[in-house]
Amino acid sequence: MAYKRILTIQDISCVGQCSLTVALPILSASGHETAILPSAVLSTHTGGFTGFTFRDLSADMPAINAHWQKEGLQFEAIYTGYLGSVSQIDYVLEIMNTSLTEKGLRIVDPAMADNGKLYSLFDMTYVEAMKKLCATADYLLPNVTEACFLTGIEYRETYDEAYINQLMTALHDLGAKTVVLTGVSFHPEQTGVMISEQGVLSYYPHRRLSQSCHGTGDVYASAFTGALMKGLDAYTAAKIAADFVLICMENTRGDANHTYGVKFEPMLGTLMDMIRIARKMAARD
Hints:
Elements: E1 5-15, H1 20-29, E2 33-44, E3 54-56, H2 61-71, E4 75-80, H3 86-99, E5 100-108, E6 113-114, E7 117-118, H4 124-135, E8 139-140, H5 144-151, H6 161-174, E9 178-182, E10 190-197, E11 200-207, H7 216-228, H8 234-252, H9 268-284
Parallel strand pairs: 1-2, 1-4, 4-5, 5-8, 8-9
Antiparallel strand pairs: 2-3, 6-7, 9-10, 10-11
Helix pairs in contact: 1-7, 2-3, 3-4, 5-6, 7-8, 8-9
């Protein structure tokens, strides 16, 4: 059985199911040793909360990596999520260059925009820096908005397959090897994921739920990484991650007191079963 050491680099929101408090349990449940590098510590996440505390940990990142180098520690994948500054992107690139194994994978979720707009703390200088990180990605996981900012293609709320294909081509031209584009919707009642792996373009549609939830992008990227690092192909990992997010959203639906994330924890056993079944099916092929 594959047992990999994965490093995930993103912030810790002490309350609010996103970033490291999502990535660590999901990757661990997927069967991997999970190391973390916090980019910042917040009392809560920034969606739906006010007056949250924020401590930037950028200055600690080079020293942490230096210690890892001294100890000879390396990782078979580095998965990045929300990064708070241009300097952190530069530090992440250095960590990837020095702390990955020879065949280690770079998995990048740009985590900077949605619904046609950048998150409030980011600007085009940050976008330009993020392009450098995305250009190195073995697996790039943007949503449609992030793909538009990364490629300079105009954002559209309605589009056809030709538009999505244009985005996918431009992301490959940026440098990304495999692209997993989330939030791709060709019909009002559906959304889905477009995957481009080794020149093959494929689409996995699923039901669109009426409500939106904070942190689902982090749940998706973490489940995708967990499944991928168990030896599954990108399409299968993307499908598992999409199904898992939908299950988590359904598990949260109807709870008016739980608006800050999804109740993914009770569903971790289901994720483990999904990965186990997919690996058995892959072994038979």
